[in-house]
Amino acid sequence: MSLVKRITRSRAVQEALGFLVASYLGLVQRTNRFVMEPADAYDRIGPMMPVIAAMWHGQHFMIHFAKRPQDRAASLVSRSGDGEFNAIALRHLGIRAIRGSGARGRDVRKKGGISAMRGMLRALDDGEMVVMTADIPKISRICGEGIVTLAQLSGRPIVPVAVVTSRRIDFNSWDRASLGLPFGRGAIVLGEPVFVDREASPEALEEARQAVERDLDAVHARAYALIGSKDPGAKRRQDAPILAGGSRA
């Protein structure tokens, strides 16, 4: 490991980075004028709490803006070095981190996927909302099976969420990450909840997976439309090759 990487991954540096990220996001939230759609989203979703808030990779920086102050929340964060300061930032924002991620053919135990699933189930059972990306690393905007499995096992609904700002930095990364800038306009869009029956068949699980994928695309398209912009991540889906079974990768 290089000297720079050792320094940036030291506990003191990551604590400082996490605090700075949280402070910056607080500034973005305070200085943007946000509109929420639907306007009665909290009235409709509130009685369903705790829910599973679904987002796309790359949209994780501002997703907590959609959380009400009274909502207890936990978020799935990878075990990577970068994930550590993200977890610290979330702590400063009042969100508990559950460490782990999907494996996609790799060692699930090493990635922490099994323990993370257990942690998310415990969180939901304890009344905490769970926030997680619907797609898995390196396959942008293709919903994986993890989030629908969590919904099936927990009995809690999945709510697609998009939070975007008019002034932002769009990174040229695999996930088309976006980071909001201060002093602009913002949009928070919540989709219709997707329910997964505990006894769902494989076909029903696939239908739910496709519904989450479709609805996440829809809420992002609508959120960007509300601020007069186009979704910078939409093209990545169109370019994704088709896999066996009809899904893209």
Q: Helix and strand string, N-terminal first? A: HHEHEEHEHHEHEEEEHH
Helical amount: 40-55%
CATH class: Alpha Beta
Main β-sheet description: 7 strands, mixed
Number of strands: 9
Strand order of the largest sheet: 1-9-6-2-5-3-4
InterPro entries: DUF374
Protein name: Lysophospholipid acyltransferase family protein
Keywords: Acyltransferase, Transferase
Organism: Microvirga puerhi
Quick description:
It contains nine helices and nine strands. It has 249 residues and is an alpha/beta fold.
3D architecture notes:
Helix 2 crosses helix 4 and helix 7 packs across helix 8. The protein is of the alpha/beta class. It has a 7-stranded mixed β-sheet with strand order 1-9-6-2-5-3-4, with helices on both faces. Strands 7-8 form a two-stranded antiparallel sheet. It has one domain: Glycerol-3-phosphate (1)-acyltransferase. It has 9 helices and 9 strands.
Features:
17% strand; Glycerol-3-phosphate (1)-acyltransferase; 249 residues; disordered C terminus
SSE topology:
Elements: H1 3-8, H2 11-31, E1 33-37, H3 41-45, E2 52-55, E3 73-77, H4 81-92, E4 96-99, H5 108-111, H6 113-125, E5 129-133, H7 146-154, E6 158-165, E7 168-170, E8 178-180, E9 185-190, H8 202-226, H9 234-239
Parallel strand pairs: 1-9, 2-5, 2-6, 3-4, 3-5
Antiparallel strand pairs: 6-9, 7-8
